[in-house]
Amino acid sequence: MHIPDLPHPEIKPRSRWLPSLVWLIPLISALIGIALLVKSVTAEGPIVTVTFNSAEGLEAGKTKVKYKDVEIGAVRSIALSDDLRQVRVEIQFDKAAAKFATEGSRFWVVRPRIGASGISGLGTLLSGAYIGADIGRSPRGRTDFTGLETAPIVTADQQGHQYTLRGDSLGSLDIGAPVFYRRIQVGQVVGFALDPKGSGVIVNVFVNAPYDRYVATHTRWWHASGVDLRLDSGGLTLNTQSLATVVMGGLAFESPPGSDAGPQAADGSTFTLASDETDAMREPDGAPLYVVMHFNQSLRGLSVGAPVDLRGITLGQVTKIGLGYDEKALNFSMEVTMALYPDRLSRRSNTMLPAPNTQGANDLLQHLVMHGLRGQLRTGNLLTGQLYVALDMFPQAPRATVDLRNTPIDLPTVPNTLDELQVQIAGIARKLNQVPFDKIGANLSGTLESANRLFGQLNTEVVPQARSTLASAQKTFDAAQATLGQDSPMQADVHGAMQELTRTLQSLNALADYLERHPEALVFGKKGDRQ
């Protein structure tokens, strides 16, 4: 069967190419993805790295970064540092929060905390921990930060001034401790550290506006603990600021009495931190004059810091209590070193006194000592038995001089009144013990016997007219002999009275010695009798 040849098809190209509708869908999707990527990149802010000691409560992709409780970014990643001691947290900020990538910004982890300043972060119990932020004020950018372990007490937007205080001890202060002005809380402690030499502490405080205008260049600062109870030779003193200071302590400041606030202190000014208000308000004392006194009596009740008093004016305080040995007398003496401030006396004097450490001042001191200036221990408080050193004039004291070339100057002393009374009572008792009462009684008895014999002779020889008179005299002398006889009641009473007087003086001697060691017995009695 013959199959005829078929004609070949003629292929003609299309005049134009039209894409298929199927390719439109992925193309549109790609364009949308690119647009979203561009929008996401342009909407993101900078990336910063914050180093913390621990990543407790933090989770990459979930933990938020907040400023004033507004989300400004999120944790992007968490990794260990190269030395494995810390963690490095990358934070992705929103574009609107780009200013946080500047020098001075601070970051910390907000968790539930209980501290001396109160309870914070309770909201994180449900929402979880987040990173708090405080914006810096520097125009220079920065992307690497060291995180804070606790939230800062003062934020960058808080108005006020910061000051530095230098003191001997931190006391009971802690970060967040209150600062008071006239018993109104006006600020808080924001930091503290040892000074470079380790001889004191440096405390940083922040005073809120508008109270910072009351901090002047001559403002005095002091520790204002919750209960400042002092019991010394001056009596019982109780000072307090508020109940909050009982737990965490506090500071206070004021201008000196009689002066106005004055010009405001500049931000960052440095002040001296006193131990209490009394020390803070005391006028500047100038250079001290160190003197030493030797006492031949017990120093029980005298302590370092006890005042040195000149007729009611406190000239200084005791700085050291020691023991000295006199090789000539082969006896011990108690050495008391004191710091005296002559400027305190000059400020209270109506006349011009010589300047301290001058020839005029030395001549005046020598003149006063030659005319009876002495040191004496006195009881400042009968309740506590506290002693203080009194400077006073004793014109009857033995003549003495001082060697002003010695350092410290050795000033003479006199015993106190109680010691003098004890010595006088002991002397009276010794003198009474030396009286020969037995010999005196025997001599009186012999004298009466001789008089009795004389009267017997006169009774037989005198004229009868004198017999009646002699008889009356005889009766009188007989009565006197009976009264003053060896075994007479009067003789026994005299002996008994002298013995009682001796025992009384011995009791007074013991009482004076006991009162010197326990002056509080005048108020409470003996320890064994306090029931």
TrEMBL record:
InterPro entries: Mce/MlaD (IPR003399), PqiA-PqiB_transport (IPR051800)
GO CC terms, sorted: plasma membrane
Pfam families: MlaD
Chief place of localization: membrane
Annotated Mce/MlaD domain residues: 45-132, 160-219, 289-392
Parts of the chain that traverse the membrane: 21-38
Localisation per UniProt entry: Cell inner membrane
Assigned keywords, A-Z: Cell inner membrane, Cell membrane, Membrane, Transmembrane, Transmembrane helix
PANTHER family assigned to the protein according to its UniProt record, in alphabetical order: INTERMEMBRANE TRANSPORT PROTEIN PQIB-RELATED (PTHR30462), INTERMEMBRANE TRANSPORT PROTEIN YEBT (PTHR30462:SF0)
Protein name, as recorded: Intermembrane transport protein PqiB
Gene source species: Paraburkholderia phenoliruptrix
